[in-house]
């Protein structure tokens, strides 16, 4: 069992370990091939050939970034918390040049963007604002109860912030990125944020869903969240499920908690979301927010 640490790095008793930490590792990881890494902050899993899930289990967000490898270049879908060095980690997984694309630009997904020379970004004002960096959101990720286990030895909590980064290519819905033998399509899925996207690897039947869907509490309460856009994006993703009555998607790869999910989940999520918006579901209080719970996921709203 991992212990949790407080700012100041003094350990707290096992009785104070938060629930999310007690349940690690999640059962889904037992079915995946684990790849050895020298950095204990990360766990790496080979989900499919040429697809590595880079999991950060020691912070409550349980962020998952993905390294997608082609024959000529690799694409890193999100750069995580920026608490440890994801660039150094990716260099140990591939010697190909690595470009960055973000599922969206909340701080927990762009933490190490600044380290990369080739960064794609959605052409939105929200992306441009996020690229300036921030401190407040980053600091909120390391308050007591948010860290499970040990932080990296050279991590400086007082200086922790999301550093500014430079976008070298502006993206739009439907754009394609050729990795050599593997083509990735940009699917705009705004709602969680204005710049939220999914990545479609149609040839291999993979949809990387970012924060639009993952098993767990889906955050839909921030000022930049647009509920109408979120519902439309779920409908759009469901449209990718099949082609000519044959299954088109084989696997969803979410950005939090576990890296594998059933494409059929999307229909359940949309139906549940519509029930919530129609006032048919009772909520439970969660701090200042409301949580609408369903089997395997929930919506956290104002």
Task: Please give a structural write-up.
- The structure is a single chain.
- By secondary structure, the protein is an alpha/beta fold.
- It has a single domain (14-277), classed as Metallo-beta-lactamase, Chain A.
- Helices cover 16% and strands 26% of the residues.
- The chain has six helices and 19 strands.
- The protein has helices at 19-22, 86-93, 125-130, 136-140, 227-238, 265-277; strands at residues 33-35, 43-48, 51-55, 64-69, 74-77, 98-101, 119-122, 169-171, 176-178, 183-188, 197-201, 206-210, 217-219, 242-243, 246-247, 251-254, 284-286, 289-294, 297-301.
- The protein has an eight-stranded mixed β-sheet with strand order 1-2-3-4-5-6-7-8, with no helix packed on it. It has a five-stranded mixed β-sheet with strand order 9-10-11-12-16, with no helix packed on it. It has a four-stranded mixed β-sheet with strand order 13-19-18-17, covered by helices on one side.
- α5 (227-238) runs antiparallel to α6 (265-277).
- The longest helix is centred in the last third of the chain and has 13 residues, at 265-277.
- Mean pLDDT is 93; it is low at 1-13.
How are the SSEs ordered, and which strands pair?
Layout: H1 19-22, E1 33-35, E2 43-48, E3 51-55, E4 64-69, E5 74-77, H2 86-93, E6 98-101, E7 119-122, H3 125-130, H4 136-140, E8 169-171, E9 176-178, E10 183-188, E11 197-201, E12 206-210, E13 217-219, H5 227-238, E14 242-243, E15 246-247, E16 251-254, H6 265-277, E17 284-286, E18 289-294, E19 297-301
């Amino acid at each position: 069992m991992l212990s949790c640490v407080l700012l100041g790095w003094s350990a707290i008793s096992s009785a104070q370990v938060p629930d999310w930490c007690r349940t690690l590792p999640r059962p889904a990881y037992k079915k995946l091939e684990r790849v050895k890494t020298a950095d204990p902050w990360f766990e790496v899993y080979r989900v499919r050939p040429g697809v590595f899930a880079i999991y950060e289990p020691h912070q409550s967000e349980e962020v998952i970034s993905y390294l997608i490898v082609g024959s000529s270049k690799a694409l890193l879908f999100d750069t995580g918390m920026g608490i440890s060095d994801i660039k150094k980690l990716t260099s140990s997984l591939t010697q190909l040049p690595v470009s960055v694309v973000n599922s969206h630009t909340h701080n927990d997904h762009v933490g190490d963007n600044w380290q990369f020379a080739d960064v794609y970004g959605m052409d939105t004002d929200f992306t441009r604002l996020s690229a300036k960096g921030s401190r407040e959101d980053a600091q909120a990720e390391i308050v007591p109860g948010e860290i499970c286990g040990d932080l990296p030895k050279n991590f400086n909590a007082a200086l922790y912030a999301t550093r500014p980064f430079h976008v070298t290519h502006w993206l739009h819905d439907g754009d394609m990125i050729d990795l050599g033998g593997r083509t990735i399509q940009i699917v705009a899925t705004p709602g969680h944020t204005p710049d939220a996207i999914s990545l479609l690897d149609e040839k291999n039947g993979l949809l990387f869903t970012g924060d639009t869907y993952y098993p767990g509490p889906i955050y839909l309460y921030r000022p930049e969240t647009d509920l109408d856009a979120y519902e439309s994006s779920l409908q759009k993703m469901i449209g990718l499920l099949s082609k000519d009555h044959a299954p088109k998607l084989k696997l969803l790869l979410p950005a939090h908690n576990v890296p594998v999910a059933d494409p059929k989940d999307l229909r359940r999520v949309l139906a549940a979301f519509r029930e919530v918006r129609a006032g048919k579901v009772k909520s439970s209080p969660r701090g200042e927010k409301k949580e609408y719970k369903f089997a395997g996921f929930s919506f956290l709203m104002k």
